[in-house]
Amino acid sequence: MSRYINPTTSAAPGFSVYPLEVSEIGIVTFTDNGTTEIRPTQLQCERYGYKFDVTTGTCYAFKPSIKLTESIGKTTNFVKGQNNTLSRGVENTSITGQSNTVLNNTRSNVIIGNNHTINANLNNGIVTGTKANVTTSGSLTMGGNQPTDNLSERQTIILQYGCQTTGTANVSAGINNESGVRFVLPDNAICYFHADTIVVRTAGSGSGSVGDYASYVERGVLINKSGTTSIQRERDTIKTSGTITNWRILADDTAGNTLGFLCRGNTNQTLEWNMTVRITMIQTDVSL
Description:
Blueprint: E1 4-5, E2 18-22, E3 28-31, H1 42-47, E4 51-53, E5 58-60, H2 66-72, E6 78-80, E7 85-86, E8 94-96, E9 101-102, E10 110-112, E11 117-118, E12 126-130, E13 133-134, E14 140-144, E15 154-165, E16 171-172, E17 174-175, E18 183-184, E19 189-203, E20 213-225, E21 228-241, E22 248-252, E23 258-264, E24 270-283
Parallel strand pairs: 6-8, 7-9, 8-10, 9-11, 10-12, 11-13, 12-14
Antiparallel strand pairs: 1-2, 2-3, 4-5, 14-15, 15-17, 15-24, 16-23, 18-23, 19-20, 19-24, 20-21, 22-23
């Protein structure tokens, strides 16, 4: 992907982030270490002389013409509505609505509504409503905002976590069963999470039998106060069958500012875990 590299190499006084690059359609990406991409706030954007679109929450070096925007989008995309922006590498994406922004290298997403942002390198998601900020592949995101609200001020996200356990050690479930992938709660945001959980034994020589199962609800509140998270949680056992000694699911926030679920089984038991996780979130613009 060709792109324009911004000459800034260090942060301005009082700031920890600085521009990293400007895309072909004028979107400015920031960084705090020279490699990690960050979407800037309005204050950060304007400090370096760029323009900030409060409707989409996007920092621009310039606004592209309609012809330029359309030439960058792939022919595999379906777009119905005005003022939608598709960056380089967007493929197999359907948009019905207005003023949505889809960043680089996203594929197979369905976007319904207005003023959403789908971040770079995300696939297979669905977003509806108004002003949702999509940060996770394979998610269903619903933006419940007015046009005057901030991006992602109120939104609900549905994710699927999964993993396999074969012993008594905790295993961290991953989104879409991908190891190490967890939902990141932004700074100064709070969420209520509700994880409907099913686990079934599929193999192993330990006590009990193949087909033993359990179901749980793990729920609680995760808050990020200016980069420091804390969690309160509880668990209900719904129904069980067979030998489930030592089985457990536990929500945790020990890996950065993320929502994780630790799954535990028992010796010589192969267990498959699946969680449908609903996240109800408020993103503030103040320091909590």
